[in-house]
Amino acid sequence: MTTNNNKLYKQKLKILKKLYHYQNSDYDATRQVIIYREEAVTPDERERLQQDHWKINEIISIDHNTLIESIRVWGQDEQLSLERASAEFIAAVGGSYPRGMTTLHSTLFAKTVPEHDYQPARRLIACGVCGFSTSNTTPHDGHWSNIASIRNSLYQGRLYHSVIGVYTDLQERLTLPAVSPTEEDINVFRNLLHHLDQAHEDETPGSYEKRLTAAKLIKGNAGTRRDILQTLAIAGILPNSQISLDPLTWTSFEDMVDPEVNLNNTKGRSDMEMPWAAWEGKLRVNWDQARLLFGAYL
């Protein structure tokens, strides 16, 4: 495994932020996607992106079955091991490699998602098995997506846990060198788990987030902290009161989200989601699941 180069990463982030700024975009009404103007970056910056095989606009036609088939194949690729995903997620938690935020979720998704056709969910316009959805009236049919903008979000350190986010993450990581967490990253991750394990009995997800912010354990903003906690909850490391989750066993999308109707902190809100929304302080940390995924670092 290689170690990450913070200086080069920050230089790339600077270019991407300029390129994918909302003021540097045009709308393609035919394909219903946002296009970004290459002129926003200098020739030297463009060459830098080309060296990384970065496509400024990568517009693809996708449909449910094509995505799931590719994801399932990539889930068996040795380059996308669970050990690598765990290491890169720790590097994202510690702050040295924000690109690693989605790696754990996407790898677990790829290794467990069953082969299936689009199955309408009971309450949502999405596939009840995997959550695939679009703005189309027939959401399982093909449509266009500029996955370059999704890839930019991954580099900014956001959790992109939709099916197209999983696809985009895995597709690029097949071409990227593996990244190891620094000692500081590992210490931050350990401290976070112990901080969670010392939660107050009656602590809610919202009140814990405020306490985590005050503790200044995690770099980044509130969105970064929420993404980390949501990922740990999806992986079953942070248990919830509504559904038991095993990181190596598939849980359908609607079985995951339907319990939101039982929670007070999801009503009228779009930012608080299952399963993190159903964590309670008294549940603390599932150390068996933590050791399963991160044993080498604990």
Primary descriptors:
two-stranded parallel ribbon, 43% helix, 12 helices, two-stranded antiparallel sheet, single chain, mainly alpha, 298 residues
Low-confidence stretches: none
How far from one another are the termini? 19 Å
- Can you give the mean pLDDT? 92
Query: Could you say which overall geometry the principal axes of the C-alpha atoms support?
Result: globular
Query: Strand-and-helix sequence, N→C?
Result: EHEEHEHHHEHHEHHHHH
- Helical content, roughly? 40-55%
Tell me the number of helical segments per DSSP (H or I, 4 or more residues long): 12
Question: Topology, please?
Answer:
Elements: E1 2-3, H1 6-19, E2 25-28, E3 33-36, H2 43-51, E4 59-62, H3 64-74, H4 82-94, H5 103-112, E5 143-146, H6 147-155, H7 163-173, E6 179-180, H8 183-197, H9 205-215, H10 222-234, H11 253-257, H12 287-294
